[in-house]
User: Fold this.
Amino acid sequence: MCECYAPDGTPHPTNKREECKKLMDEFADEIPWFGIEQEYTMFDHTGKHPYGWPTNGYPGPQGPYYCGVGADRVQGRKIVEAHYRACMYAGVKIAGTNAEVMPSQWEYQVGPCEGIDMGDHLWVSRYILCRVAEEFDVVISFDPKPIDGDWNGAGCHTNISTKAMREEGGMEHIVKAIEKMSTKHDEHIREYDPTNGKDNARRLTGLHETASIHDFSYGVANRGCSIRIPRQCEKDGYGYFEDRRPSSNCDPYAVTSIIIKSICQ
Assistant:
């Protein structure tokens, strides 16, 4: 993986890594850990028709596909498993995978990664996924709402913790961090997809396990909130929290940068 710089040595406007690295170095004592859940959708070789969907019409309604098994419910598992193995071989910190709510939609998890490693590992994992899918004549879409209608979109749920959050009494630090982020909701939304929120507006509607893009909320074990605190963390009194707003096509450097700015500065 390479960073992109202009001929004069300054970072290219698309290079979000440089600023992210500076922030992660500045707040290294916080020992920030991240884990990202990357959702994506498989399309046939045209990039227009969802992989395995009927030629004419639609598959049955959502419900039986999430974490499903069986050829009548799951499409593309060979690609998923080949990608997983390739990531392990490459040293990417991939941690799990599952079929998602919409047929031909999948998720894999990367992390926990400390600091700048989160963005590095996620970008490489995306490259490997597209390269593996190419062998199967399949196109990978990271669009946050690839199919209109009553179908789930795709996100990049980002799990965050600092050293203080992971220790006894950490829930106090978790709540403080979330409250800081609540005051910068619009700023975060602009950083959570490459179009300053326009892509995510198609996904964050308040339906399909999302909160509205216009509102900020948090809660325990609530998939309809902007930020979710896992039930086990509430029980333990420490752990981490999950920001459910980032889009599947987000730049992880931009996402982790704005989070660190909000909770550490």
